Amino acid sequence: MEPAGFSVRDLESAHTIVSEEESNSKRKDSREAGQPPRTAAREYGERLRSVGILGSIPIILAAGPIVGVLIGQWLDGRFGTDPWLAALMAALGFAAGVREMIRLIRRSNAEEKKADQDKRES
Question: For the chain, which residues make up each domain, given as ranges?
Answer without folding.
Answer: 1-37, 39-121
